[in-house]
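seq:
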Amino acid sequence: MSQGQKKRVALAKSLTEEASLYLWDEPDNYLDLFNQDQLIKLLAKEQLAMLLVDHDQAFIEVVAKERVNLRPVL
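struct:
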């Protein structure tokens, strides 16, 4: 399976398991634009409680209601 196929399966598996909080690390990695758009629409529709780690600022702007920026402690 390609990396995109593996990512779609992992996301689908995660969503079939009911949870109070979903923890996802870079869910849009390896997804093509069509699947990224589907994921964005799903997240907007379902309003899941989620902690999401991602480097894609455009994706974050669309799906995040709140943002927490972590910095190293000196």
